[in-house]
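quick one before i forget lol
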Amino acid sequence: VIIMTMTARRLKLNEHISAADMPLYTSLVEVNEDVDSHDHDFIELAMILRGNCQHETLYEKRDLRCGDVVLLRPGVWHAYRQCHNLLVGNCGIGLPLRQRELAWTQDDPHLSYLLWAGPWSGEHQGVLSFRLEPKALYRCRRQLEILDELRHRQEPVHRSVVLAHLLLLLGEMGEAWTSTNAAQVIEQHPIHPAVHDAMALLEKRIADAWTLPDLAANVQLDRAYLARLFRHHSGLPPMAYLNRLRLERAAAMLLGTQDAIGNIAVAVGLPDANYFARRFHKHFGITPSQMRREQSIHDRR
């Protein structure tokens, strides 16, 4: 296991691609000082393995201790303050991995809320927090250590081996989330195929000028019925889900590319630059240009 000091910088998944050529990043990070605000272009699962700190986002401050887990969606700014003897286990999951190898998790009662709808539903603002009991924490740490060892092997590692250990890690976390947040979890029925297809369409054709009738016609369902099903499974109406998806994709592009902000707005289906900037600021608490400026500051450090 590689122990390293976390520094205040932007985290990009393409800097940490695993040996199995999967968009997955793992590490155990010893934090020796406060970590300034930073963000990332992947889904991050951060486990507190030792010590304590105050975790800061744009929306809240939360005290974390051994056993706490924070899940952050791409583009969410966060910081670690008042760190004391802190050891953090990180697992970064690229969106292509979630959309490809992990697409089936939309149908899993433990993982669908965790990896898909939960972080953006309600007032979560892209962040979920929960706790692992000691035995579950031990098992999660063990899987993370194995994944980190596989990532640093010199010889090729079969993708299925990496994926198997990732699923064991995610399974533990999914059960922990469900057991400790039962009141917040959407009723656990398999996701309706039409909702699954609608989500896939929105992700694949994010730049299209979608309306609810268009989406309903594509999945061959009555629009009112689709809206009810979609809200039931994701916690959001279809167009609200699309709006958050667009902003998330835009944040990832701002962090991971040098594309002009106007081009990014067009690419995610929000071609009106002023409207895009207003929606982005309302959602993330920062404008696209400010996020790009912060990127330059962090990259120069």
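fyi The two ends are 26 Å apart (CA to CA).
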